[in-house]
Amino acid sequence: MAKLIKAKKRVIERPVKTKAGNSILKKELTAKNFIAQLKNHQSDTELKKIQRYFKTGVGDYGHGDKFMGVKTGTLFALAKEFGEMPIGEIEKLLESPIHEVRAGAVSIMDKASRNKKISKERLKDFFDLYMRRHDRVNNWDLCDLGCLYMTGSYLYDKPHDILYKLARSKNIWERRTAILSTCYFIRKGEMTDTFKIAEILVNDKEDLIHKATGWMLRFACAKDRKRLITFLDKHAATMPRTLLRYSIEHFNSKEREHYLKMKTA
DNA sequence: CCAAACGCGGTTTTCATCGC
DNA sequence: GCGATGAAAACCGCGTTTGG
After folding, report:
1. Around Cβ A54, how many Cβ atoms within 10 Å?
2. Domain with CATH 1.25.10.90 in chain A
3. Of A161, A183, A203, A207, which is the most buried if we count CB atoms within 10 A?
4. In 10 A of CB A32, how many CB atoms?
């Protein structure tokens, strides 16, 4: 434990954050170096945990994925430091068979995208890479990292057609991308796409789509409660249970009961 | 009677708020 | 400013309840 913290600290103290050292820095901002750093933080205890956390059994969504055993927090801290990694190197990370390495790739894009000072060009590079290599995004956490800020902020002032195409995809992670990308719009007070895409996904077969959609509906409800009520009055009786329960999680018990009982009514 | 549904608790990280 | 605190968020699993 102490060892891990020490190692983490050492990484932070590297001259990565100093602007003056940019040229030296760029040399180190490689996929190879990132993976080497990750290996420093590998632990078997964490490996067991993470394999249990992401369902890896036969038939589960995470089946066949490889893990190395790095704590999420450590991964995020590392990703923050590698924020300036060239896009080609990020793509290399994305091509890794190891989950944490791919998560690192998307996390680098996520952390950098949260910075309001990110350039339009950089954001476009991120978005294009994410969409072009969506085949490498094959778990819920990768979707979350890519979409909670990055995809949405890129698309914010552009046409949103691509999200509707993704919402109708056969690929579960593309559908998850579609709904989660609206998270940024919700933050900006724009809920239309969330509800329109939720309408497309309202009878989805996948549990992880129910959860993501319910999550976004609940999030949107915080800004526009009436709109969720309208949606629920139309769909509560037939929509998947998890989707419904997630979306009304913040209702008081009376309201919750009302919508939960609509199925039988 | 069994499966689905429910609600809660545990995992971890991040964000907002509070008081010094 | 800054550390402490609490809330909330993805997720899962588990024990209990419900209902077809």
Report:
1. 17
2. 167-265
3. A183
4. 11
Q: What does the alpha-carbon distance between residue A127 and residue A76 come to, in Å, rounded to a whole number? A: 19
Asked if the Cβ of residue A187 lies within 7 A of any atom of strand C, the reply is: no
Q: CA at A12, C1' at C1: how many angstroms apart?
A: 22
Closest nucleotide C1' to the C-alpha of A214 = C10
pLDDT at residue number A264 = 65
> How far in angstroms lies nucleotide B10's C1' from the CA of residue A245?
20
Taking chain A (265 residues) in consecutive chunks of 10 residues, what is each chunk's mean pLDDT? 30 37 58 90 81 74 83 83 90 92 90 83 92 90 88 91 93 91 86 92 88 88 86 89 86 82 73
Query: Which nucleotides of strand B lie under 7 Å from a protein CB?
Result: 4-7, 11-15
Residues 6+ apart with CB under 8 A from A88: none
CATH number attached to the domain at A167-265: 1.25.10.90
